[in-house]
Design brief:
Blueprint lengths: L1 E5 L4 H12 L3 E6 L6 H6 L6 E3 L5 H11 L3 E4 L6 H6 L1 H22 L3 E7 L22 H20 L2 E7 L1 E3 L17 H10 L5 E4 L11 E2 L1 E3 H17 L4 E7 L5 E2 H12 L5 E4 L8 E2 L4 H6 L8 H14 L10
This protein binds nicotinamide-adenine-dinucleotide.
């Protein structure tokens, strides 16, 4: 299948692109490199199948679609820092929402009928119950979540009116690195627990801060559902195959997680066990709007996509450690 991947130079987009290429799909990438890495584009060996451009530049998107003639788009490109979204909602509405609208328009004009969108469990806000299935009300509590929910709604309207088939994959906490060892997680600033813990253990980042130890959880720290980036990649492939079997005008959502939660203390212990090093940490106060538990019910994805997560926490942390051990400076991009 010919597939255009937005956000291909980022963490999940690159890992997914790699796996799809290994399965024989013809991949094209679109990224403005604002938060991704030129090195990743080299590692994927995209050559002239990479288009440098911004989702808010219609001419560049149209060009990419005209040249790539994709049968499907995987849409990863976005800003994804919750804290930043609170202080700079303008960035999130412009980049995530307006950018995605630009993509939908380019797809409509270019006749591209299949879309898989990177949504998030953040669209649920503070969940009424655990584990979280897709019937929970979506009530985000920050501009990042608002922008993602608004995109889901725009996709529904475009799917209904223009014959698009779409899937929104609501990821829980993506983690881990590629089995080949060359693609890993390098955000700037990093806000995700596993890379922060491993980098603290390596001594290349500050001690980890544990935000809150007085939650109503067994050890007092927040519990999250960590899913291996390769499992997410497989879910994208499964979603593309699922869409092939669906009628036009469909937009479905799937929660992607393992269904198992791990506390911050469990993550620290696992990082220490696998790296053989101590994870230095301090204890801070709770962050506003951090729910005690966020754990997926992946039942719908298991059933309808014939997909389930294969990696457990040890496997996630082991792959992440393999990458960080060999990339203490990440992709070595020049930091702004
Ligand atoms: N990482 C997670 O745990 C997680 C969880 C839930 C959802 N998501 C979603 O998954 C997607 C990928 O996340 P990630 O961790 O790989 O992020 P990332 O920051 O590593 O990658 C995003 C990529 O998109 C590019 N990009 C951003 N805005 C763009 C624009 N306007 N035009 C062109 N390119 C643009 C960036 O340069 C970057 O390469 C995001 O949409 C994110 O919201 C991630």
């Amino acid at each position: 299948m010919r597939i255009l991947v937005t956000g291909i130079a980022g963490y999940i987009g690159s890992n997914t692109a790699r796996i799809l290429m290994e399965r024989g799909h013809e991949l094209f990438g679109f990224d403005n490199l604002s938060r991704g890495h030129a090195r990743v584009v080299q590692l994927l060996d995209l050559g002239d199948r990479f288009f440098l451009g911004d989702l808010n530049e219609p001419a560049r998107l149209d060009h990419a679609i005209t040249v790539a003639r994709p049968e499907a788009v995987l849409h990863f490109a976005a800003y994804a820092l919750v804290g930043e979204s609170v202080t700079r909602p303008d960035l999130y509405w412009k980049n995530n929402f307006c950018g995605s609208l630009g993509l939908l328009e380019a797809m409509r004009l270019g006749g591209v009928k299949r879309l898989v969108f990177s949504s998030t469990c953040a669209t649920y806000g503070i969940p009424e119950r655990i584990p979280m299935d897709e019937t929970l009300p979506q009530s985000p509590i920050n501009p990042y979540g608002h922008s993602k929910l608004a995109i889901e709604k725009a996709i529904t309207d475009y799917a209904n009116a223009y014959g698009i088939k779409a899937a929104s994959l609501r990821y829980f906490n993506a983690a881990g690195a590629s089995a080949s060892g060359d693609l890993g997680e390098d955000h700037f600033p990093e806000s995700h627990l596993i890379p922060l813990a491993l980098r603290a253990a390596q001594g290349v980042a500050n001690p980890l801060c544990v935000f809150g130890t007085d939650y109503p959880t067994p050890d007092g720290t927040c519990i999250r559902d960590y899913i291996h980036v390769d499992d997410l990649a497989e879910a994208h492939l499964a979603a593309l195959l699922h869409l092939e079997r669906q009628p036009a005008n469909t937009h479905e959502a799937f929660n992607l997680g393992t269904g198992r939660g791990h506390s911050v203390h469990e993550i620290i212990s696992c990082c220490e066990k696998i790296s053989g090093r101590t994870v230095p940490y301090t204890i801070g106060s709770r962050r506003l709007g951090d729910p005690p538990f966020l754990v997926a019910d992946p039942g719908k994805a298991n059933r309808d996509l014939h997909w389930s997560a294969r990696h457990d926490l040890n496997s996630i942390v082991q792959s992440a450690w393999n990458w960080h051990k060999n990339h203490p400076n990440g992709y070595k991009m020049v930091r702004p």
